[in-house]
Write a structure and sequence with these properties.
Elements (H helix, E strand, L loop, with lengths): L1 E6 L3 E7 L5 E8 L5 H19 L4 E6 L2 E2 L6 E2 L11 H9 L3 E5 H12 L7 E7 L3 E7 L2 E2 L20 H5 L12 H5 L1 H12 L5 H7 L2 H25 L3 E5 L8 H12 L9 E3 L6 H7 L10
Parallel strand pairs: 1-4, 4-7, 8-11, 11-12
Antiparallel strand pairs: 1-2, 2-3, 5-6, 8-9, 9-10
Helix pairs in contact: 1-2, 3-10, 6-8, 8-9
Length: 301
C-alpha cells in the first residue's frame, strides 16, 4: 500500500492506493496555522488513523508547495512560509519511524499524470499547474527530474518571452521580487488584473473564460498568446512528448484547441503541434503523485 500526503496552505489531504493505482481511502483535514510542530503532528495523526482503518502499513510520500534544498536539507521556496527552514522529511521520519519522500507539488502532479493520467505512455512529460500561480514539473521515463537546486520545471519565474510594447509598459511585479515573470502574466490573478485594467471592473478568471463579452474575449486572446509564447520556450528546450495542464485554469476548454497551433507558430520548426492535454485526476493528481514517489519494489508491506 502507498500513502500520499498533499500538504497545502488550507488543507492536508491523504490518499491510500494499491500498487495498481486503485484508491482505498481519501481524507482531508484543515492545515494547522499555529506552529510547524502542529503540522508535523497533524500529518502523523492522519497517517496513523488511515493505517488503522485499513489495517496495513504503507510507504509515504508528501507533496509540498516548495522544495527541500539538496545543500541544506531544509525546505525552501515554499509559499506556505511556516515550512521554510525546516527539515520536513527528517521530522516526519522521526514522527512516523519510517523513510519519507518529500517533493514539490508540481512534480507530484506531473508524476501522477505521467504514471496513470493524461501523460501515461509518454516518455517525456511536462506538467503545468496554472491557477493562482504558474508551476511546472518534468517527468522522464516515469521519474521526476529535480536538478541540483531542486528548481527543475519552475518556468513560471522565467521572464515572459518576446514582450510586446504594451507588456513592457504594464510590466507587473511578481511576488518573487522580479518583474514580468510568466506567472505574473499567465495566472488567474493576472487575467483578473488585465480585465480590470481594460474595463475598470472585477471578474474572476473563471468568469472571464465563460463571459463571451468583447472585453473578456480580448483579454483571453492576449492570455492565449502569452501562454503559447511561454510554452514554446519549454518546447524548444525540452521537446516533451506531452504537456499536461492542471490547476484551476486547466478547466478552460478552449486551451486545448487554442494553444497547440499558437505554440507551433512560436516554437522552433516543430513538425506538427505539441500534445497539450488536460489532466485526468484533477485536484487529486498532487496527492496521487506523492503516493507514486515510491516505486512498487520499495513499497512497505
Amino acid at each position: 500500500m502507498r500513502l500520499g500526503i498533499d500538504l497545502g496552505g488550507t488543507k492536508i489531504e491523504i490518499i491510500a492506493i494499491e500498487d495498481d493505482g486503485r484508491e482505498l481511502l481519501r481524507h482531508r483535514v484543515p492545515t494547522p496555522h499555529t506552529s510547524y510542530e502542529n503540522t508535523i503532528t497533524a500529518i502523523r495523526d492522519l497517517v496513523i488513523e488511515t493505517e488503522s482503518k485499513l489495517g496495513q502499513r504503507g510507504s509515504l510520500g508528501v507533496a509540498i508547495p516548495g522544495a527541500i534544498s539538496k545543500k541544506t536539507g531544509l525546505v525552501k521556496n515554499a509559499n506556505s512560509t511556516m515550512l521554510i527552514g525546516h527539515p520536513l522529511d527528517k521530522d516526519l521520519e522521526a514522527a512516523l519511524s519510517r523513510q519519507v519522500r518529500v517533493a514539490n507539488d508540481a512534480n507530484c502532479f506531473t508524476l501522477s499524470e505521467a504514471t496513470d493520467g493524461a501523460g501515461c505512455g509518454y516518455d517525456v512529460v511536462f506538467g503545468i499547474i496554472i491557477g493562482t500561480g504558474v508551476g511546472g514539473g518534468v517527468c522522464i521515463g516515469g521519474r521526476t527530474l529535480n536538478g541540483p537546486h531542486a528548481i527543475t520545471g519552475e518556468w513560471g519565474h522565467n521572464p515572459l518571452p518576446c514582450p510586446r510594447g504594451d507588456e513592457n509598459v504594464n510590466d507587473p511585479r511578481c511576488y518573487c521580487g522580479r518583474h514580468g515573470c510568466i506567472e505574473s502574466w499567465c495566472s488567474g490573478p493576472a487575467l483578473t488584473r488585465e480585465y480590470r485594467r481594460r474595463t475598470g471592473r472585477d471578474m474572476t478568471a473563471e468568469d472571464i473564460a465563460k463571459s463571451g463579452d468583447s472585453d473578456a474575449s480580448a483579454v483571453l486572446e492576449d492570455f492565449y498568446d502569452r501562454f503559447a509564447r511561454s510554452i514554446a520556450t519549454l518546447v524548444n528546450i525540452l521537446d516533451p512528448d506531452a504537456i499536461v495542464i492542471g490547476g484551476g485554469l486547466s478547466n478552460i476548454d478552449a486551451l486545448y484547441s487554442e494553444l497547440p497551433p499558437r505554440v507551433a507558430r512560436y516554437a522552433f520548426n516543430p513538425e506538427g503541434p505539441s500534445n497539450i492535454l488536460k489532466n485526468v485526476h484533477g485536484d487529486s493528481s498532487g496527492v496521487r503523485g506523492a503516493a507514486w514517489l515510491w516505486p512498487a519494489q520499495d513499497s512497505v508491506k
